[in-house]
Design a protein that fits this description.
151 residues, alpha+beta, 2 domains, 6 strands, 50% helix, 25% strand, globular
């Protein structure tokens, strides 16, 4: 089991270290946010170091995929779903530039007990380069009123 953790951890470290060499791109920002969120979830579920590392590795990969594939148009569409989407109802779009497809189903808003920010969770089903994938995200409003992905 320890050997199977090596590759995701190595990928995570490579992404994080490479971000220090220059500016962060959206894939690296997604990876960092995914790693943090995944680690917290892994620790909460498993209550041990191995679960935390697995959560961080999975979060890194999912965050990297979402950050890498979603361009400005897609982020605007996603923000619109978080802002105005009806809870439990799917919203779909196709990116006119790259053909990627997204279907997002938002959940009811809630107040984060720690930060006191309004937050929403959503399920994102996407088809990127012909491959389907499902991601679960949480976004919270920042001080400027913009929705920011947390994981």
């Amino acid at each position: 089991m320890k050997r199977s953790l090596f590759i995701p951890i190595l990928i995570s470290l490579t992404l994080l270290l490479s971000s220090c060499a220059g500016g962060l791109n959206k894939a690296q920002m997604g990876a960092g946010g995914g790693a943090a969120g995944g680690a917290l979830i892994g620790q909460a579920i498993g209550h041990n170091t191995e679960a935390t590392l697995i959560g961080a590795a999975i979060g890194t990969m999912l965050g990297y995929m979402v950050g890498n594939e979603m361009d400005k148009y897609d982020r605007e569409q996603l923000n619109h779903v978080y802002e105005r989407g009806v809870s439990g109802q799917s919203n779909a779009w196709r990116n006119p530039d790259n053909g990627n497809q997204y279907q997002v189903t938002p959940q009811p808003a809630y107040t984060n007990p720690t930060s006191h920010q309004p937050c929403r969770q959503a399920e994102i089903q996407s088809v990127i380069d012909g491959k389907s994938q499902t991601t679960y995200t949480t976004a919270c409003r920042d001080n400027n009123g913009q929705w920011q992905l947390k994981n």
